[in-house]
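Per reviewer request, we include the raw input and output of the structure prediction for the construct analysed in the revised manuscript.
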Amino acid sequence: MTTIPARKIPLLLPSLLTFLLFPAYTFAQKDAQSRAWNLPVEPFQILGNLYYVGAKEIASYLIATPQGHILLDGGFAETAPMIARHVERLGFRLSDVKILLSSHAHYDHAGGLAELKKETGAKLVASERDAPLLAAGGKGDFRWGDELTFPLVQADRTVHDGEQVTLGDATLTAHLTPGHTKGCTTWTMRVEEAGSHYDVVFVGSPTINPGVRLAVDPSYPGIAEDYATTFRVLKSLPCDVFLGAHGSFFGLSEKILRLKKGAGPNPFLDPQGYRAFVTRSEKVYLDQLKSERAP
């Protein structure tokens, strides 16, 4: 694998004071955790045509092509204006976003999709199993019921495991990794930089929400088997660039600081971190499964 020099791009992390005083970043989450997750970070180039345009914990990605752009995940409903401004700040036009992708139908990732779809006119692509939950605005979720809803949004295209989405020279592949939601999707792609190609994995989410049951009185029939499928898929994927729906999955804050300091090689090249994350997540699943099945 070719080593990529660290980028010399400004990655100024806005202070909380700046966040509070800048009207464009005034959000309305009621709970402290959501507000902390939605704090802005300066948008930046990750690698090649791949850019980070999300918040501190709630991730969103821009894949730029000469034929238009792809945007993966919309954050909270309150995150949509931030994402839009981040796209523009990087020098791209929001109107050039042609495709929206969904990792999974939860309010902290799908909440902004309706507004972004309205503002861009882009087509939304989601897994077939998550599309009904998106269309219902999160109502009827097997764990949250009607508690954590978001603006409903209709998928223009649904995909199954292994299907691809292509725009210009960018192709993303959908890998169904269910359990967190029934249609949770891990997307993969290849990026090119300086003549070298790298496998990128955007992990949907392999985590188990509090209160979810796997084996005894399961939260939905087949959930334990779905998680087993998820870990089998994740372990099979080649990964050079480790990304995901949550910044904490792949150490976003730490890697931004390393990038800002000029650390090399590019800290987002992290196949070992990916394997370690999958291993830790699977252990949590297996431990809960064992605990539930114990006498």
